[in-house]
Specification:
globular, disordered N terminus, 176 residues, alpha+beta, four-stranded antiparallel β-sheet
Length: 176
């Protein structure tokens, strides 16, 4: 017979670094935390909007063009983190926490990288997705134009500018 589960009563996430963190220490406003291993780990929750990583106009374009195969009706943070998890399976912990009422979300991801590096990875992977999609276009001029634009695109500079605009360095960012 199983014992009743009390939300937040000692449930812990085993992190990719080997340490663990109590579920009750995570909250929806958290973007990263300093771990006992000495590193800083990014935290993402399914309730975080994809605008955390990408400008809303780009999210809108992706939602119009990317077909999702699951029950979700549009591309969102779950899909972005799925791409990251697929690319870095040993560096991302994904946990269903829907039954824990203390957190306020259904899924949580904790990464071996800090929130800035995770942001860069998401942007890099979305650019790769876009490059792949454009490569299937029948319009050589569009392909050439996209490749020219991407040759000049600096992921680090984009992330720096976007994070500054969204105030991700403050205690409370504006993308919650």
């Amino acid at each position: 017979m199983t014992s009743p589960r009390v939300p937040g009563a000692g449930d812990r996430l085993e992190l990719p670094c080997g340490e663990s963190v109590g579920l009750s220490t995570l909250d929806m406003g958290m973007r990263e935390f300093d771990c006992d291993c000495g590193d800083t780990h990014a935290v993402v929750m399914d309730v975080h909007p994809p605008g955390r990583f990408l400008p809303e106009f780009l999210v809108d374009v992706l939602r119009e063009t990317v077909e999702t195969t699951d029950e979700a009706d549009q591309l969102g943070t779950v899909h972005l983190m799925g791409i990251v998890l697929e690319e870095f399976p040993d560096a991302v912990l994904a946990k269903d926490v829907e039954d824990d009422g203390d957190i306020g979300c259904g899924l949580v991801w904790v990464t071996d990288f800090d929130s800035r590096r995770l942001h860069e990875i998401v942007v890099e992977l979305v650019v790769e997705l876009m490059e792949h999609a454009v490569s299937h276009a029948d319009d050589e001029a569009a392909i050439d134009a996209f490749e020219t634009e991407m040759a000049e695109f600096d992921v680090g500079e984009f992330v720096e500018t976007y994070r500054h605009q969204r105030d991700f360095e403050g205690e409370y960012d504006s993308a919650a």
